[in-house]
Amino acid sequence: MEHQPPFSGPALSSRRALPFQPCKLSLGTEARWRLFRTIEVLSGLRQRQTSRPSSQLTGPIQASLWVYASTIGELNAIEPLLRAIHQRLQHLALTLITDRPQYAQAYARAYPAALVYVTEGDGSEAQALARVRPPAMLLLAEIPCMPFDAPCRFSFGFVVQAKRRQAPIALLNGWLYGGRPASRIDQLEAALFTRAYLSALDFIGAQTQEVAATLLARGASLAAVTVTGNIKFDSIAEQQSGHPLARRLLHISRRTGRRIIVAGSVNDRRELTTVINAFARCRSQGLKALLVVAPRHPEVQNVRSMVQEMLVALGLRFRWYSEAQNLPPDESKDCLVLDTFGDLRAGYAVCDLAHVGINHNVLEPFQHGKFVTVLPGWQPAYPSFAVYRELLERRAVAECPDTQTLSATWARHLADPAAADKATHAALAGLRGATARSLEALEPLLLAAERRHRGNPNADAACEQP
What we know:
Elements lengths: L11 H4 L11 H17 L20 E5 L3 H6 L1 H10 L4 E6 L5 H7 L4 E4 L4 H10 L2 E7 L14 H9 L4 E6 L9 H17 L2 E4 L2 H9 L7 E3 L16 H13 L2 E8 L2 H16 L4 E7 L5 H13 L4 E3 H4 L10 E3 L6 H7 L2 E4 L6 H4 L5 E3 L10 H9 L4 E2 L3 H13 L1 H15 L2 H20 L13
Parallel strand pairs: 1-2, 1-4, 2-3, 4-5, 5-6, 6-7, 8-9, 8-12, 9-11, 10-11, 12-13, 13-14
Helix pairs in contact: 2-8, 4-19, 6-7, 10-14, 11-12, 11-17, 17-18
């Protein structure tokens, strides 16, 4: 497949010279919003609970950079770009908005100075937030490209509040997951405002041409859309060589000359069987290797029993990592079962090749320059799909349909790792740059947010229409 360069309505280089004029809501959209709010209030389906302290909505009025990210994964996905924008707009108070209460603590750890605002998707919440933190700019992280995609509960009310204050709205790293509204009130909101929502976005950074074309067909402005690529490829992989698991694997590899294969987030019996049988096949053909396998949900006894049964049946000597952590490295074992949480990335960092379980994070080992294999069967509804598909199309990962193909692919790579590693690094270099492209296209919007509210924190704070 030929990979086309990023495009937009106006060329990227010409955007910076264009004076930014934020698009406005039409009178018809404003009228429909007031009608919808009446229905929403009367329905009683979005009664806001006391899930966050009321003190979060008190204090001095501060012009704010609003960032909506439904999950921690989406917040992390735009991290390189968000850090750059936040550095540029330091005069704005950072406000992180999510509809998932379980992520509030993780958001606060990642951005300690930010206000974390948990929304249940009711239009009144956007109005309440805007009283204390009036938006100077609104950023949307990856989704929703359209209302309730994935799904998530992002009220059109946040768009309304931003537009009433002439705040630019930018969608970053856009991707479509094909979600559907979860309730009748959500369906009504989507029916009334999907086209108005898309036309209200002043900038849309789409991951692919396909996403861009879909959004344009459904109402996005041609001048707003740019194919930037995927910001996830710009993330810097953390060094893990000092991690206990990394030290253990490196010790075994240096002492025995064995190669390290890490199979992470392996999902079910079929995939576990394929991976373990492929390793056994490699060993029977004389390959000196150690398998580190990380099954999904190792805390579940049935999963532990299944893994143990497979390894014993094939005569593979193994140890559970939870039991080995405080013991010296055991050079006699064929397999280390990673049954702890938070250690997998250290294994990816030092392995010779990696296998990633279906629907999981193929970028984690890829960022370390590792050759990656996968099995087929990935689903578009998972956040990992966009990266998987991009790497597959560029032949930067090897998709292996069965045990024989997987074992042959592993043996071929380990016999000549330089060729595959060179291709991996070349693919990674070619995929980076979405952050820089996005910043260039965002320049007029950033200038507008910078000039409008610098030194005037009370700007537009009194915009209190329902």
